[in-house]
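Memo to structure team: turn this sequence into structure tokens by end of day. - J.P.
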Amino acid sequence: MLNKLEIAKGETLLVHAAAGGVGTFAVQLAVARGARVIGTASESNHEQLRSLGAEPVTYGEGLVDRVRAIAPQGVDAVLDASGRGEIPDSIELAGGPARVLTLVAFDAADTGIQVHMSVPGESGAQALRDILSLMKEGRLRVPIWRTFPLEEAADALQISRAGHLGGKIVLLPA
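Reply from structure team:
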């Protein structure tokens, strides 16, 4: 996704749903590239985003003004992992649709933005190698919310469906 957006060192990336599963990785990977990252999330997740290297802003009404308060020039690119209707704001902040990519707002293709569909292949294999390298260097973390014994997998699944956990659920084999 970051390659499709051509995120480079010194650029500013806005990540919607930055505290979610995809967002936490996108933030860390962009920071590792040397990008400045602004992440939308609820207030309760702002400290987590700061710990990952992002500058948090609250999503919702007035988003453009909040982002412009910390990035008056706008942003270079936007990654939407939210799908909660931020596409018009994203296009405005990025100065057009060319460097706006969504993973979830499939109905927004007519706006001219990029709609990402994962396709396995060499680019995916290279991305995995890059991710593993960053993990070995200690530059990529996977936030863990809670662990469960494998026999409690059904309970873990039920809890996971509620969302907004602040990390991953890990099942431990017996």
